[in-house]
Amino acid sequence: MITRMSSLFLRTLREDPADAEVPSHRLLVRAGYIRRVAPGGYAWLPLGLRVLRKVENIVREEMNAIGAQEIQFPALLPREPYEKTGRWTEYGDGLFRLKDRKGADYLLAPTHEELFALTVKGEYGSYKDFPVVLYQIQTKYRDEARPRAGILRGREFLMKDSYSFDLDDEGLERAYLAHRNAYISLFDRLGLEYVIVAATSGAMGGSASEEFLAVAENGEDTYVRSTESDYAANVEAVTTPAPAERSLEGLPAAQVHETPNTPTIEKLVDFFNAADLGRTFTAADTLKNVLVKTKQPGTKEWQLLGIGLPGDREVDMKRLEASLEPAEVEMIDAADFAAHPFLVKGYIGPKSLKDNGVRYLVDPRVVTGTAWLTGADKDGHHVVDLVAGRDFTPDGTIEAAEVREGDVSPDGQGTLVAARGIEIGHIFQLGRKYTDAFEVDALGPDSKPIRITMGSYGVGVSRVLGVLAEQNHDEIGLIWPREVSPFDVHVVIAGKDDALSAGAEKLSAELDAAGLSVVLDDRKASPGVKFKDAELVGVPTILVVGRGLANGLVEVKDRRSGDREEIAVDGVVEHLVKLVRG
Ligand code: ATP
Ligand code: MG
Question: Is the CB of 140 under 6 A from ligand 1?
Fold first, then answer.
């Protein structure tokens, strides 16, 4: 069936939407693919839905190819299973919760581990039933703190989520690798530029976890890779190599110095270098103590937490959040300082934290035997040679310090370089967190129960569409890869002449009969308007039926390169079929 622009439910916009920060958002709205309904909620108009369905089908094909079976759960779920795993609470403000008319609690599912685990438990019981991989392509809901960039971070979005169930770790490893390979072929088919990086397992627990990040300057995720090895990781997952512990013997005793007006690291270092203590200090010799407060989900109370890190590094809030997940974290403010007078702003040291029962975690570089210049808990005073393991003992370590380009790679090979990306997929060896919660067992050959081990794997289907637009556009519009383009050919009637209409109609019918999908611009608009819209909409091949038709010629335009080619009308259908089928 030929789609006609004269009746297609499409109004392109001249102006960028006011709230659009990134090109994909701007162009998908202007070209009439999506319309905003609420913060993080978008309507799919005909063009958008065509592309979304194509992406969805490619995902489906790749999942089916590894033997995964499609099922579908409701998005509206009862509280109980999520209560059982703790996620009703752990999800915090990210979860949409609601009540039915009887007052029972429900949620709109952010992801479905609980339901898949319960369903497998319900249907399967013998070791002979396993392994099994199930998936769905379904709408997910998350009350994101910062919905942004259109469909890149929605509060309602389409996700493919699959779950593997295995009898043992080797089985889980196999299912994980199968997904990894499926994602590689899937993202390759879509022509996406992406990297695979180590990820945090966060609150989910479990071991191996990797993310697929689409390379994008304006992405929310930062990843690093080694200049020498194949090490690559989301910065949230970078672990700081700890130096070897040192002997405490013979280290000079700690001494407190009066250091007026030194509330910043820079002033402090300058002060000590001017004081002539017989050595030079750098910011890396100072121990900066940053105070934050954390709140566990489901509780109301904020707890103070001290973080000690070398003074040449800032706290990276995303790394800190990832380390403390699922707890919420905020910097302390003036009111907190006022409420806790033992916190002397600019001069906080480990001692008063300990004396006042504040949990104190340090950067992994702060090992036993390292000596620091740090706050003496008294206005205008610092202490030199405060030795870890002798003068203070932290409650543990934490990954909170920024990761910098040029840092040694955690695998010891090369240094790190950083770039930004957008998470499009996440694969995860969950282990038994959910099967333990629901006691999902299979009876083994010896009739003893075997606890099932689980993996979970997600692709952001609607986000992928946004990323495709992000990676495939120019100033004037979208440029779809053929695999997902809403149409194969965009036919433009460039003139008012009836003969042009008749010629274009005939060619469109022939293309359609040859199995290509065609959108025909049969509107009474000027050729200029039609070309602009064709460029905005982004079908990769544009067929222009214009003046040349009288001489038996039409023009084929490549949207990406801008190249135009005059082709004889007689051969153009065959030419286009070849082009599209590759
Ligand atoms: P992010 O770190 O971007 O918030 P996530 O780690 O919370 O993502 P997962 O729980 O791993 O996401 O979900 C699987 C996939 O779903 C992600 O890889 C991503 O592609 C997609 N996704 C997650 N949140 C959103 C969202 N708010 N809008 C669109 N897609 C999303
Ligand atoms: Mg993720």
Answer: no
pLDDT on residue 205: 46
Give the closest residue (by CA) to ligand 1 atom 28: 153
Nearest CA to ligand 1 atom 19: 460
Residues near ion ligand 2 (CB < 5 Å) are 426
Mean pLDDT value across residues 324-332: 92
- In the numeric block, the tokens 């690291």 are attached to 265
Helices (H), 447-555: 461-471, 498-513, 527-537
Contacts of 339 (CB under 8 A, 6+ apart): none
So what's the architecture of 255-397 in CATH?
A: Alpha-Beta Complex (3.90)
420 CA → ligand 2 middle, Å: 15
Look up the CATH superfamily of 23-194+445-470: Bira Bifunctional Protein; Domain 2 (3.30.930.10)
| Segment holding 116, helix H or strand E | helix 113-123
What would the two tokens of residue 42 be? 């978008």
The preferred substitution site among 163, 423, 429, 456 for testing ligand 1, maximizing ligand atoms within 8 Å of CB, is 423
Q: Read off the pLDDT of residues 402-436 as tens digits, 9 standing for 90 and up.
A: 999 999 999 899 999 999 999 999 999 999 999 99
Q: What is the pLDDT of residues 131-190, one digit of tens each?
A: 999 999 999 999 998 888 899 999 999 999 999 999 999 999 999 999 999 999 999 999
